[in-house]
Amino acid sequence: MIRLVASDMDGTLLNRYGKVSLWNTNAIKALEQKNVGFVVCTGRNYEDAYTPLAEAGIHCDIICMNGAAAFNKKGERLRNQPLFQSQVTRILDICRPFSVLFDFMTEAGSCTITSREELKKSFENKVFLSMCADELSYEIIESRFQFLTEESLLNTGTDIFKISVVHENPVVLEQIRHHLKMEEGISIASSASTNLELTHAMAQKGSALMEYAIKSKIHPREILALGDSENDLSMLGLPIGYTIAMGNASDAVKRNARIITRTNDEDGVALAIESLILSKEAAVS
């Protein structure tokens, strides 16, 4: 019997416009009546995850920044695992020769050492935050960033939970990945062909979800997880009840999942929840 549903957001729970559909919303709310928990596992920061959920009337616990932090439905912190400053410095050293763009996720939101001009050009070309191109204007994106120099970034002492490294050429990103793999204690994932997402090795969706389940006294076989991209593999690779890939998921994710549902624009999350948990057939299985 499933007692917890864990869902990614972009490309999974959210449609192409960054919204939770009515069917998805109703399916999630129906879980509560079955005493089944629902938690989001996302690469977004807390605020960017909370907003579309609240708009849909969904109030749930949130594992964010690929597992670097977690919050309960009241907004109280449950988990905290930033990168070490030495790791941030090393990442900058490795990436510097490749002319990449950066998104540093901190407690106060996102900041970057990329210029406004570079950021705008990259967004307009659907390289930077390509998944938000239909959801938000560049002006909204820019307003969410604090623009810093590298020196001021390193000297503030602010915890950095996740670093997104962005480049239009996947070959360049593979070169960077190769160098980063030689560094201890850094987790490397991706949510698009144009980015790498870097966190502390202890900050992954899979490990954060298992920690959350243990604290909630939920057995792995009582968990259903859904995702679509590489940063979901640590979660979908767990020995849990159901691992579900979206119809729009990457081939690697589909190969690692037990079941494939419909796409995020076809309410694949709701279909999975209704078929495997809410239906009469699921109730007697």
From TrEMBL:
It comes from the Bacteria. SUPFAM superfamilies: HAD-like. It holds the Pfam family Hydrolase_3. GO terms for molecular function: magnesium ion binding; phosphatase activity. InterPro entries: Cof, HAD-like_sf, HAD-SF_hydro_IIB, HAD_sf. GO terms for cellular component: cytosol. This is Haloacid dehalogenase.
